[in-house]
Amino acid sequence: MKARHIGWIAAFGLVLAGCAQPPTADIDAAKQSLDEARQAQAAEYAPQTWTTAQDAMAKLDAELAAQEQRWSATRTYTTVRQLAQDTKAMADRSRDEAIAGKEKAKSDATTMMADAQAAVDRAHAAVASAPKGKGTEADLASLKSDTASLDDTLAEMHRMFDSGQYNDAKVKAQAAIDAAKQVEAEIEKAKSQRRSA
Hints:
Blueprint: H1 2-19, H2 24-39, H3 42-45, H4 47-69, H5 78-128, H6 137-162, H7 166-196
Helix pairs in contact: 2-4, 2-5, 4-5, 5-6, 5-7, 6-7
């Protein structure tokens, strides 16, 4: 009888030891996918799915911590496994969206950079054809300074593009386009005033 009792205790102990293990493979896969999404710059190019993936990881961490607080005989990792799989799926989606988003941003930036270069070239041509004469020297000097700063903006835009900062390059391209249009508008206004004088 005593040997039988010890046998039951040993069997029960083995059951407890065997059923309370966290699904480390699923958790590691989720973390790996999150790292891949981070490296793909998901925060910049797929912000919504990246935030959802991070939220899923936070839930996974919370559930894992909750299970670790429980007595080993009552721990269950079914929810942890599901949360890990959900996190991995969302992180993979975030990574894929980021890769596609980055390619689109690169394409958009390439187009905008060409537009910016053309706008700056037009601004330079406009400054060269600006009316000269008494009372225009200061304005002309200011416009020449403005177009020179446009060249700096273009150079910075190219540096950003070359370093993979496509969204920032687009912002710089738009700034150059807007500034170039302003220069052209100022020169057209000066020409119009000269004609009406």
